[in-house]
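ZP: hey, is the S-adenosyl-L-homocysteine complex queued? I don't see it on the tracker
AM: it wasn't, my bad. submitting now with these inputs:
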Amino acid sequence: MTGMLVVAGLGPGDEALITPEVAAALADATDVVGYIPYVARVPAREGLTLHATDNRVELARATHALELAAAGRRVVVVSSGDPGVFAMASAVFEAVEHSPRLADIDIRVLPGITAMLAAAARAGAPLGHDFCAINLSDNLKPWETIERRLRLAAQADFAMAFYNPRSASRPHQLARALEILRAECGPDRLIIFARAVTTPEERISVVTLAEARAEMADMRTVVLVGSAATRRVGQHVYTPRRAG
Ligand code: SAH
């Protein structure tokens, strides 16, 4: 038995933003594997086993999912947003690399709407020209790498999306990131704090870099930083399609 594993993105929160192909994979699954709050978004039903695990055990979770698939189960590994953006799809391929005996499993990755795209749509079109995404968590990379990437991205005038901007274990990182932006960009640079986008707790605020404070973000927030050209038009924020 070779087995099949689906890695699926559940989108940013609203059920209407789960793609039909992800919904079909979930309806067909015998097992759903993932981080506790994401698995909680999948309704229980007869014949479906939910395997919810804590954060920071991604590799063990991925290996477990591959083993279930190898045993003939129809397994869906779930992530929020898109599974390829700071999420489980890479962890699954890392697990395959570590365990060649699991290499024959047929793996399919189903995309989802990632947080920065849902947040950008709420604000208008702040990512309408070149942009990059940076994970501010230093769980899996040195903080110096994050600082260097952020500084160079600001110098290259990319718009940016910061994932994992702040958590209880990393309270100072966004403050430091804002300090770097202040050194590289003018005080009028637009910053969007988008919290729990597309859920009932959604909160979007648009401020200037001069007004931005690290406390405006928590672990459910994605932070969008405009480029030098990003501006307001009416109630919206957008980045023009042309750059100088
Ligand atoms: N795979 C996910 C990202 C996982 S990392 C995706 O593609 O969206 C977790 C981070 O994603 C959070 O710290 C936050 O920065 C961001 N995030 C996830 N869902 C969000 C939402 N609904 N609103 C705002 N930010 C969100």
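AM: back. The CA atoms of residues 35 and 167 lie 17 Å apart.
ZP: great, adding it to the tracker
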